[in-house]
Design brief:
- Chain B: GO terms for molecular function: cobalamin binding; metal ion binding; methionine synthase activity.
- Chain B: Belongs to the methylamine corrinoid protein family.
- Chain B: It comes from Candidatus Avoscillospira avistercoris.
- The structure holds 2 protein chains of 2 kinds.
- Chain A has a single domain, classed as Dihydropteroate synthase-like (TIM Barrel).
- Chain A is about 45% helix and about 15% strand.
- Chain A contains 10 helices and 8 strands.
- Chain A has an 8-stranded parallel β-sheet.
- Chain B is an alpha/beta fold.
- Chain B has 2 domains: about 80 residues, Methionine synthase domain (Methyltransferase, Methionine Synthase (B12-binding Domains), Chain A, domain 1), CATH 1.10.1240.10; about 120 residues, 3-Layer(aba) Sandwich (Rossmann fold), CATH 3.40.50.280.
- In chain B, strands 2-1-3-4-5 form a 5-stranded parallel β-sheet, sandwiched between helices.
- In chain B, α1 packs across α4.
- The chains are: A alpha/beta, B alpha/beta.
Chain lengths: ~280, ~210
């Protein structure tokens, strides 16, 4: 599983405070804690990437410079020898993403685009895709255009549009992280069914594409008892083809579940990653 | 140890199924004695794997992977060995006793014994005591009979199997080993078995001792 670590996001009050105060130590420590969950080549035969999500959530006027500072602080604590760790540059503004990703020394992923238009009426994919076209950067793409499509067919229609854009700009499917969108089960009990059906169809069409999600949306509305729902979603979605997730990499219950699910779904030959995760102390 | 044989040892121990055949071929090309490659390279590596498993340093899948890697190497080595040399340690008849269908542990034991250089005749699960006796009669060069019982309810069946072997005229020519989750050394002594071991690695080690290799 490709983990996208969610702990450095200005939407979290303590992080917002640290950003406002330019508390570099706080950002670095949050980065380090997440980096510890990255697969180490001392234990793993082929370590998969781990992306540290960096989201400023500030006033758009200062967002780019804030991201620059955050990116530099996070990259400063990634050990040189850990080649599989990089940044997910996160902004609701595609234009900010297209600018800020250039501050990264390591090749990461952009979080995110969709078929939505920005304030200037430009489709998000048309801003980010050309910017990363000549790089190896990946990109998260949400299956929405104007609001969240409410049927599998409608979401897949957006998917087709995104793939057409990707083709136009020469972005190979294996650079894309499709987020089929997770709604709250509290308000839409078909939320998982919709998600998983999209996963199956996408994977059937493009086996090499990545599927990710901000899965904790599923448990919105159940304060204090969200965890079982998040965990069940994770296991079931992985079986449907999700191979990446935006989660807290320091949450051992969730990380352990991911390794266990990979083993049970025959994505872990000879149980080697499960054993490696144990040896590295990740379980 | 010869450097090339050392590479075979390391590849088997690490369970590198792709690397082992190449390492064996390179050792052969370098003029290493095929028997030495087998004994010092592969069987010794599996001894080490068994020891690490017993010590809790490695786990069942890693033992399986190492055994599989060794087999790939044996395939390369076989044409260069005298016939029967890969099973030079002797013949072992193994099975799970009548009434018991468990085979995971028995299979692991068979695999580790094979990796230790034995020829294995695996009778499978739910094996009647008469079958064990018949098979020894049909294979007079059998050195060891290994019987497994996984349930407290099939321990009496294990007792009867060992009793049948103990009453057979060939008894002095063979050693009887027993194992399985509920089995203890005391039970093994009580029913007249020659040896009890608690895991697959120890079983292979014990078999070598009993067979005098």
């Amino acid at each position: 599983m490709i983990i996208i670590g969610e702990k450095i996001n200005g939407a979290i009050p303590v992080v917002a405070k640290a950003i406002a105060e330019r508390d570099a130590e706080f950002i670095r420590e949050r980065a380090k804690a997440q980096i510890a969950a990255a697969q180490d080549e001392d234990y793993f035969e082929e370590p998969v990437p781990l992306y540290i999500d960096v989201c400023a959530s500030t006033d758009p006027a200062v967002e780019v410079e804030t991201l620059k500072w955050m990116i530099e602080e996070v990259e400063s604590v990634i050990p040189d020898e850990l080649e599989n760790v990089a940044i997910a540059v996160d902004s609701p503004s595609a234009a900010v993403c297209a600018e800020a990703f250039k501050f990264c020394k390591r090749t990461g992923i952009v979080n995110s685009v969709s078929m939505e238009k920005d304030e200037q009426g430009r489709v998000k994919t048309d801003i980010v895709f050309p910017a990363i076209a000549d790089t190896d950067w990946g990109c998260i793409a949400l299956l929405c255009e104007s609001g969240i499509p409410q049927s599998v067919e409608d979401r897949m229609a957006v998917f087709e549009k995104i793939m057409a854009k990707a083709k136009e700009y020469g972005i190979a499917p294996n650079r894309l992280y499709i987020d089929p969108l997770v709604e709250a089960a509290a308000t839409n009990q078909a939320a998982f069914t919709l998600f998983s059906e999209c996963c199956r169809r996408i994977k059937a069409q493009y086996p090499e594409i990545h599927i990710t999600s901000g899965l904790s949306n599923i448990s919105f509305g159940f304060p204090g008892f969200r965890k079982p729902l998040n965990m069940a979603f994770m296991a079931l979605a992985m079986q449907a083809g999700m191979d990446s997730a935006i989660v807290d990499p320091t949450n051992k219950d969730m990380v352990g579940l991911m390794y266990a699910t990979e083993l049970l779904t025959e994505q872990d030959e000879d149980c080697m990653n499960y054993i490696a995760a144990h040896r590295q102390g990740l379980l | 140890m010869n450097e090339k044989i050392q590479e075979v040892f390391a590849a088997v121990e690490a369970g590198k199924a792709k690397k082992v055949p190449t390492a064996v071929q390179e050792a052969l090309d370098a003029g290493c004695d095929p028997t030495a490659i087998l004994n010092e390279g592969m069987i010794a590596a599996m001894d080490s794997v068994g020891a690490k498993f017993k010590a809790g340093e490695i786990f069942v899948p890693e033992m399986l992977v190492a055994a599989r890697a060794m087999k790939k190497g044996v395939d390369v080595l076989k044409p260069h060995l005298a016939s029967g040399e890969t099973n030079a340690a002797g013949k072992i008849i193994i099975g799970t006793v009548a009434g018991d269908l468990h085979d995971i542990g028995k299979n692991l034991v068979a695999m580790m014994m094979e990796s230790a250089g034995f020829e294995i005749i695996d009778l499978g699960v739910d094996v009647p005591k008469e079958k064990f006796v018949e098979m020894v009669e049909a294979n007079p060069d059998t050195k060891i009979v290994a019987c497994s019982a996984l349930l407290t309810t099939t321990m009496p069946s294990l007792k009867e199997t060992v009793a049948a072997l103990n009453a057979a005229p060939f008894r002095s020519n063979i050693k009887v080993m027993v194992g399985g989750a509920p089995i203890t050394q005391a039970f093994a002594d009580e029913i007249g078995a020659d040896a009890y071991t608690e895991d697959a690695a120890s079983a292979a080690q014990k078999a070598k001792e009993l067979a005098g290799v």
